Structure formats: C-alpha cells, structure tokens
Structure of Glycerophosphodiester phosphodiesterase:
Amino acid sequence: TVKMVSKQEQQEMVNIAHRGASGHAPENTMGAFQKGVEMKADYIEIDVQMTKDGELVVIHDTTVDRTTNGTGKVGDLTLKEIRQLDAGSWFSEAFTGESVPTFEEVLAEFQGKVGILVELKAPELYTGVEEKVADALIEKNMSAPNNNKIIIQSFNHESIKKSKELLPNLSHGVLTGGSWANVTEEQLAQFASYADYFNPTMKIVTDELVSNVHEAGMDIYPYTSRSQEQALRLFDLNVDGIITDYPEHVYSHPVKN
Ligand code: G3P
Ligand code: CA
C-alpha cells in the first residue's frame, strides 16, 4: 500500500523562524528564539544593529519605540540604556522582563543548537557594523569554511559585498523587496558573484523567479509567511526555505517512505 503523505511531508524545506517564533513570542527576544528551537526550526532569523557605544544588539526597528517600553533611536542609546528596557510586555504580560538581546548573547546561547540567519539591519546607519559582526563570529569560531549554520543577509547589498570579503567562507544572502519583481538573469548572475541566497518578499515569487534563481546557482528563502496557505503556496513554487513567524506551518524534516 502507498501511504498518502501531504505535500509538506514530501518536500525537504528549510524552516526559518522569523525574528524567532515571533507569532508566539515577542520578536527578537531570547524567548522567541528559544521557542523557534523548541518548534524545530532549522534557523532563527535575527536583526542586528549597533548602539551609540558600538555594541551589537538584536532588534528590528531603527527605534526602540514599537517593541520596548522606551523611546528613541537604537543608535542614540547606549547598551546600558537599551538593556534597561522591557522588550516583552508589548506582546503579552507573560513576557514582561524580556530584554533586547546582544548579538554575543544570541551566539553564545544558540551556537550549535540552531542555524542563525543574521540580517544586517540598516547597516548604512552603523559604520563598521560588518567588521563587528565578522569579529564576533570569528571570535566564536563560527566563520569556518562550510559552516552552513550561519548565513548573513541584508537589503543593503553593498554591505553584503563587504561582509563577504570579511567572511569569505560564510554564506551570504541578498534581501529584495517588491521592486525586484522583474529581476533579470544578468542581475541574478551579479548577485551570485557574492551571494548564495536570493531572499525576496514572497509577493514576487513565481515559478519563473524560482527557476531563474536556481539557474544562477543560488537558493531562495522568501519572507514572511504568516499563514498555512502562504506556506503551502511557497511549497508549490519549489522554494528552498520559508521565513515564517509560525514554524509549525513548515515541516523541515519530511517523512520518508
Ligand atoms: O528575513 C527576511 C525578513 O526578516 C526581512 O524583513 O522587515 O522582517 O526584517 P524584515
Ligand atoms: Ca529581518
């Protein structure tokens, strides 16, 4: 007899918990990252920025206003000031007391436990952020050849070029928004000269885009799936991984018959 398996079970799919399992816990907190690991994500995605005093912190917006009880720009606050903020209670009372993690802290806690998809967020605001990220990874021995558990990505493609020079053995990705719907094969070849991943908004993903990205030698991890339906559409389009707020929508380990 042939066991009927769902589409999801048949296909190998890399499961990336966006800002951690941010559908279930406050984004970019240790709680959200822990939850992503519990839910068997292959990677946690984190947004890295820099404080006024040059420390790397993990937060999405360029201000602390939306996701903490403070106000102001990340780059205008010291690490000490940022660490005093509550980054959990905006999401729910159960997470009161979560703080904005440092990059170091995330590496120390999750090295070897889950892959880390590191987004350099708004690197144009933070001179030297690529070097600081590279130094932190080198110091923790996470820059070794073929280390496929760390990927560095950004919407700022110049920043990714710079990072690739600093960390030639690590995988890099270019993030793209809606304006890249008609990306040409030439542009993809250009990206492929320094990047291993082309990670677009899921809105622009078509069969043709997926095959062109593969043709150029890159993998494609679209963002951000927030429903089962959206995840299934991406499965159908044969992407390589799905960046999602809900890791339960994506099964990373297929049932083999
Ligand atoms: O990983 C891709 C995704 O995180 C990019 O968008 O705004 O959530 O950082 P954003
Ligand atoms: Ca991100």
